[in-house]
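Blinded run. Sample ID left blank on purpose so nobody reads anything into the name before looking at the predicted structure. Input follows.
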Amino acid sequence: MDDLQAELARLAEHLSSRRSAILAAWQSAIKRDPALTTGEPLPRVQLLDHIPSMLATFERALYHPPGIAEKIGADAGQEPAAAHGLQRWRQGYDLREVTRELGKLNECVVAELDAHTAANPAISHTGVATARRVWAAMCSTGIEQSVGQFFELQQQEAAGHVKDLESALSEIRELEQQRGDLWRQAAHDLRGNLGVVANATVGLARKELRESSRDDFVGILMRSVTSLHHLLDDVTNLARLQAGREHRSIEPLDVAQIAQQLCEGIRPLAQQRRLFLRCEGPAGFAADGDPVKIRRIAQNLILNAVKATTKGGITVSWGDSDANDPKRWVLCIRDTGPGFHTSAGKPLAEALDVESNTPHAHEAAEQADARAETPASGTAGDKNPGISGNETGEGIGLSIVKRLCDMLDATIEMQSVADVGTTFRIRFPRKYSE
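Blinded prediction complete.
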């Protein structure tokens, strides 16, 4: 037994001296195998990683008595084999490549044992058989551990993908629900406006209608047709955005000029409603951006504010974001309307969810239903105050604003206090990489 143990110790020393040659032979076998391609771009150190530790474990096991050596080799080989499986998973190997790669290592070690036996006829058959059993036990456990670790990680990764897919599907369902609600609101608003048009048309057809009342009905009809036109534009714009047919076009621009020109165009509408519309900000405020989309964002928010506000007015301001955010500038639209019933600082998505329950939207919707279902009545000279332009549709406008902000890498914040007013702040990048 002492002679056998001494023989195994000498074999261990030989394998230790030949470790680099075994690794080189294994590396060459890997490169020659057309089925093993993942490791080709890896540096030599990353390719070998835990293989030298497996060989060193085999060498150490041979210093122990037969019977014990097999168990020591199998137990001690588990850690480097599992680490090998983990490393190969990180490097993008598939399971077939891991097992095939370890099979090539087995071939190289067996070939080295055969070459050593052929070069040393004096070595006993028992010594060679013992060394083979130690390596076989270690190789078998090593493959099991490496493949097991790799397979476990694959399962964890697959489970993670399933969770990601479930989360994505849930988000898609929520988006589809929001989209459905938005289109239902659009249909509701269109129906309301058409009801107003129908009632005004019936009123105009009355032969006994006085001229002054006829003028009132014409005014109502014109306002409703204009509202329908704006609503259809919003629906078309939203459809284009959802279809991905909008693209941003970045160029240098003057924010002050865009805001002032926009306010000048909307101010007559505000004055008609006895509201003020102020512009505040530095002149010649330069930034990069898409002037068309920035104008659309501001226009939607200002028009919504004008429609929602019954007294006071709207203030449009622009300027630097703040000292902690020098890479952005801010556009602010503040009104003195009834406000959204959401807490300060809530993201726009939450405002959209509750918008149909806000006072002005809800009341306008009820009025639209009443106008759509009740035919015009009254004698000559009746003003019929229940008939007016439908002023719903804020949800579509805000949805367009949100999507345009996403396109421009802008963030939007809303602060609202009931019966005090609502403030929207949009923070745009000063520069774009494109």
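Unblinding after everyone has recorded impressions. Residues 342-394 have pLDDT under 50 and may be disordered.
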